[in-house]
Amino acid sequence: MENSPQQPNWLQESPAQPSLTHRERALEHQDQLTKPPGSLGELEALAVQLAAIQNSHNPAAEPAHIALFAADHGITAEGVSPIDPVVTQQMMTNFVNGGAAISVMARELGCELEVIDVGSRWPGELPQPILDRRIAPGTANMRREAAMSPEQFLAALEAGREAAERAQQSGVKLFIAGEMGIGNTSAAAALAAALLEAPAAGLVGPGTGLQGPALRHKEEVIEAALSFHRHELGSPGALANPWEAGRRVGGLEICAMAGAYLRCAQLGIAVLLDGYISGSAALLAERLAPGTKENMLLGHCSAEPGHRRVVSALGLSPILSLGMRLGEGSGAATALPLLRMACAIHNNMATFAQAGVTQGDNHQ
Ligand SMILES: O=C(O)c1ccc[n+]([C@@H]2O[C@H](COP(=O)([O-])O)[C@@H](O)[C@H]2O)c1
Ligand SMILES: Cc1cc2nc[nH]c2cc1C
């Protein structure tokens, strides 16, 4: 980073890698359960993957924790979202009052939902129980300048680290990061395009609902932002550096999510990814600390077209594909019951020996 502040020590720690021994043991255990081998399909694979990530013979998707990061985006000044940015603040109130989709889902699941403002334009004091970690009143307009200073970028990663550590302290086994931020599909697309060195066209989508010429305008704005930063850096490839990409074209909530994913990977807390913004944050985390992706499961495939590109770059396949494009952590929350089911099966089914059921085929 230009004029980089000192990187804190935690950012230099490596992500923990899933345990090969636990993976092997979990695979063997699945074949001892009273079912034809492989007959529970992806449910088996999910339990095995969690066992490896958690270094445990008893994979667990509970307790799960949802940390929802909110922030505003300077790029909205360029007309890239059909929604008024004031909705970021209004939805924060809705989250804590229990009326938003993720609020209902969290209640239904019995999960804690924590709302963390890392950079909304909320004027004055925030209502309880929103956690106030505001770094700036939104990012700067990335079309004209870097979205964040190096210090703000590190502060956003730090806000994510803190959330992961709070989760660890309450014994959380599975971490979901949600987000809210009008304009953040533009930041997610710009970040993905920068990190993947891909044209904006395949990564920009409708977001909350842009169509036709307005969608083409969004694409042009993001392409122009990318050119601006590549030119400023003096070399086209330099924007693929995650320290540059994150702060120049990312978002405060996106970088906080990346910090949380990174810290979860270091702590061995499994992460369940959500939609497009979450995917872009995951790609940033992976580029900042290679190996972070090994700690991740993908809850769903968003209807935002760029999501597929981003998750395939991470080598992840979605548990669900329901045409959702809400964000907030809602796609991950929807997949959580399936993960719970996968764990319950792995941990509680009888083995052939326990149940006195004959194992193996009948052919000589
Ligand atoms: O998670 C997704 O895949 C997703 C796809 C489209 C929109 N969103 C949500 O919509 C908001 C951003 O949309 P936009 O059009 O303002 O960039 C933000 O609050 C996101 O949570 C989220
Ligand atoms: C109402 C509304 C709710 C949201 N939740 C996440 N992004 C959102 C965008 C809008 C517009």
TrEMBL record:
It catalyses: 5,6-dimethylbenzimidazole + nicotinate beta-D-ribonucleotide = alpha-ribazole 5'-phosphate + nicotinate + H(+). The active site is at E328. SUPFAM superfamilies: Nicotinate mononucleotide:5,6-dimethylbenzimidazole phosphoribosyltransferase (CobT). InterPro entries: Nict_dMeBzImd_PRibTrfase (IPR003200), Nict_dMeBzImd_PRibTrfase_bact (IPR017846), Nict_dMeBzImd_PRibTrfase_N (IPR023195), Nict_dMeBzImd_PRibTrfase_sf (IPR036087). It holds the Pfam family DBI_PRT. One of its GO terms (biological process) is cobalamin biosynthetic process. Residues 1-27 are annotated as: Disordered. Residues 1-20 have a biased composition (Polar residues). This is Nicotinate-nucleotide--dimethylbenzimidazole phosphoribosyltransferase.
